[in-house]
Amino acid sequence: MAFSHPSLLFLIVTFLLMQTLGDAATCSTCFTQSRAAYYPNSDEQGTETGRCGYGPFGATLNGGDVSAASDLYRDGVGCGACYQVRCTNSYYCSDKGVMVVVTDHGSSHQTDFILSRRAFARMAQTTYAATSLIALGVVDIEYRRVSCSYPGQNITIKIDENSNYPHYLAFVIRYQQGKKDITAVQLCETHNFVCKLLDRSYGAVWTTSSPPSGPLSVRMLFSDDDGDETWLTPVNNIPEDWKPGSTYDSGVQANL
Asked: How many H-runs (helices) and E-runs (strands) does the chain carry?
């Protein structure tokens, strides 16, 4: 019996250690160490030509606190995701950092983020510290995924200017809320609810070369890393006579 006690203690310690390591591996609120730069040739806000396909809207989204991402871009699935990013130099950097939205794809000097100049400066404690950060150009950071929030704003559908009614439809989904990714989109006829799975052309741009006729409903599949999936159906439809360049309010928010 004396032999069993140390063995039992060893098994308990081993179990607790494995549980702790497992929790750390799946921690959704933990920070990841990395580096960040900023757009060197931009104004205070982001770029209007980001690879997510947001256009000029992508430069001003979230007040201009936006970023390009490298691996986190994930072939466009990462577009619209929000991250808390904070630099780690305690002399210059605040504890809060800045919340940015991914609107572009890119990397520089082994970075995960290329922030807008505005967002990069907002990681600092003071205006003086912000000037020093800008002078550094590239800084060590830590980041984590956070929920996107746009109070009072519904998800909107922006029809791409290159769409050609009624033969070709492309659109971008704006104001993606919550902490999940949009991993699939269906376009449904509202009269008989026959749905067609759309292609992700690039970034956040969804397309079809033969859109259904009549008023259209855009169904969005929100997914997370744990495999939880939720289909969201808007209250409002895209009108039958949709027009390139137009924006339509879905009537719903996605606080998932």
From this structure: 4, 15
Name the residue with tokens 């991250």.
83
Query: Alpha helix (H) ranges present in 159-203?
Result: none
- For 250, the token pair is 């879905």
Q: How high is the pLDDT of residue 108?
A: 86
Domains and CATH numbers, the chain: 32-145 (2.40.40.10), 155-252 (2.60.40.760)
> In sequence order, what are the residues at sequence separation of 6 or more whose Cβ sits closer than 8 angstroms to the Cβ of residue 206?
170, 171, 172, 173, 185, 198, 199, 200
Residues 218 and 237: their CA atoms lie apart, in Å, by: 7
List Cβ neighbours of 231 (8 Å cut-off, separation of 6 or more).
219, 220, 221, 222
| pLDDT at residue number 26 | 56
Of residues 252, 31, 49, the one with CA closest to residue 157: 252
> Each residue of 202-249: pLDDT tens digit?
999 999 998 998 999 999 999 998 889 999 999 999 999 999 999 999
